[in-house]
Design a protein that fits this description.
By secondary structure, this protein is an all-alpha fold. The protein has helices at 4-8, 16-32, 37-53, 56-78, 86-172, 183-204, 207-219, 221-244.
C-alpha cells in the first residue's frame, strides 16, 4: 500500500525537517523536467501531500487512518470476510469516512488551485486587452491629428495656388497685382530668412570670405546701406524681445 511517506521517500516517523527537505528535492526535480500536464498534476499532488504532512493535526488524522487501514488488511488476511464482527464493520465505516474526508480535502485544494490559476489567466488577458485598446486609441488619435494637419496644409496650398492663378490672370490683363500675405507664404519667407542667416553665419567664420565681405562693406555704398538696414532690423527685433521679458 503506497502512502504519502512513500511519495516523499521518508520513514513514517520522519521529522518535519526531513519531510520539508524531501518536498524541496521533489519540487526541484519536477522543475528540471519538461513541463506538461502530467508533471503539473504531479506537482499539485506533491503540494497537497505536503500540506497534510506539514500540518500536525492532519498528519495525526492521516496516521490514524493509515493504521486503521493496515489493521483491517491484517484482519482480512487472518479471518474470512464472512466472520467480520460489528466492531470491524464500525472500524471500516470510520476508515471510509476518514478516507473520504482526506479525498475531499485533496479535491478542494485542487479545485481552489485551478480556480486561482484561471482567475490569474483571465486577469492577465483583461490587462493585455486593455493595453492593446489603449495603444490602438493612441494610434487612432495620432492618425487623426496627422490627417488634420495634412488637410490643413492641402487647403492652404490650394488657396495659395488659386491666389497665384488669379494674380497671373490679372497681370495678363494689364493690372498691377499685390498678393496677400498667407500663413504659408509667411512660413516660406521665414524659412528662407533663417536659411540665409545660417548660410551667412557659416560663411562669416571662413577667414577669406569674412575678409571679402568686410572689404565689400567698406568699399560698396549700396552693400553698406543694405547691411545697415538689416542690422537695424535685427537690433530692433532683439530690443523688442528684451523689452517683453523685462
Amino acid at each position: 500500500m503506497n502512502t504519502l511517506y512513500d511519495l516523499f521517500k521518508v520513514k513514517e516517523n520522519a521529522t518535519q525537517d526531513e519531510i520539508k527537505q524531501a518536498y524541496d528535492n521533489l519540487l526541484k526535480k519536477a522543475d528540471s523536467l519538461p513541463q506538461n500536464q502530467k508533471i503539473i498534476e504531479q506537482v499539485r499532488r506533491i503540494k497537497i501531500a505536503y500540506g497534510i504532512l506539514s500540518d500536525s493535526e492532519k498528519r495525526k488524522k492521516y496516521d490514524a487512518d493509515l493504521a486503521t487501514k493496515r489493521a483491517d488488511e491484517l484482519l482480512q488476511n487472518i479471518q474470512p470476510k464472512t466472520e467480520q464482527t460489528v466492531e470491524e464493520e464500525s472500524s471500516q465505516l470510520e476508515e471510509n469516512e476518514i478516507k473520504q474526508e482526506i479525498q475531499n480535502q485533496i479535491n478542494q485544494a485542487i479545485q481552489f488551485q485551478s480556480v486561482r490559476e484561471l482567475k490569474q489567466k483571465v486577469d492577465q488577458q483583461r490587462q493585455e486587452k486593455q493595453l492593446r485598446q489603449e495603444q490602438l486609441e493612441k494610434q487612432r488619435k495620432k492618425q487623426e491629428r496627422k490627417k488634420k494637419r495634412q488637410a490643413k496644409k492641402e487647403q492652404e496650398l490650394k488657396r495659395e495656388m488659386e491666389i497665384n492663378a488669379y494674380g497671373e490672370y490679372l497681370q495678363r490683363q494689364g493690372y498691377k497685382v499685390k498678393y496677400p500675405w498667407t500663413w504659408l507664404r509667411v512660413k516660406r519667407l521665414l524659412i528662407s530668412m533663417i536659411g540665409v542667416v545660417i548660410a551667412l553665419f557659416i560663411l562669416w567664420h571662413i577667414p577669406f570670405v569674412r575678409q571679402t565681405l568686410t572689404d565689400l562693406y567698406h568699399t560698396n555704398f549700396v552693400v553698406k546701406y543694405l547691411a545697415d538696414i538689416m542690422f537695424s532690423m535685427f537690433k530692433g527685433i532683439i530690443d523688442s524681445i528684451k523689452s517683453i521679458f523685462k
